[in-house]
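Incident review: delayed structure delivery

Summary: a single-chain prediction request sat in the queue longer than the usual turnaround. Root cause was a stuck worker, restarted by the on-call engineer. No data loss occurred. The affected request and its eventual output are reproduced below so the record is complete for anyone auditing the incident later.

Affected input:
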Amino acid sequence: VNFWYEIGGGNDWIILEVGDKWDWGLASSLAKAPKPPYVIEFDAKFAQTPNEVAMGFVFAGDKPGNNCPDYSSADAFYRHDECFNHFYNPQWYWAGEKLHLIWQRVDELVWCPDCGGSPMKRRGDTENLGQMDNVKNDGWNSHRVEVREGNIKYYVGRPYDAELTLQHEYNDTRWINDPYFGVFAYAGEYTSSVARYEYFSITPLDN
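Output delivered after worker restart:
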């Protein structure tokens, strides 16, 4: 898992790369979102568009420990409990040359190195919502998630659209008072996942 900033030449991107097949990773500045209600907005795209890879973002994550991640050993780094043990994880998955939405509420991480793929499994509620509406499948899209006490609304659309399209509304808000957020990527069997993000904004939202 690699994470870096690319600045210059007209680019100002956050880039997250996951190289090992069937593995996933996330990266965070460990800045805190405001108390709900708040809104997260950003643009994102795949660096390339191979099948069976995903990218996304995470929010409402926890940070109970001090070392995030724990670099004391390879085992501690992967089998961690210092941060992001639960969170919401909207993902857009590339399949059949189209973007599909996976909505995941992660309630716990389970260490299972003999289960195949990543040794750290995400457990919780997962919804496969199918093909996304009104998006650019092979380019930049604008994303907006509104986090309120009663629900979470997730909008995606083509950049510069006057209104983005509501892709999903979710009513289980058990984790929303945890403030940490970041970006996510998942690699498929045949190729790495390289995700680009820009124009991140996290601001309070009026009721």
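Verification: The two ends are 38 Å apart (CA to CA).
Action items: add queue-age alerting; document worker restart procedure.
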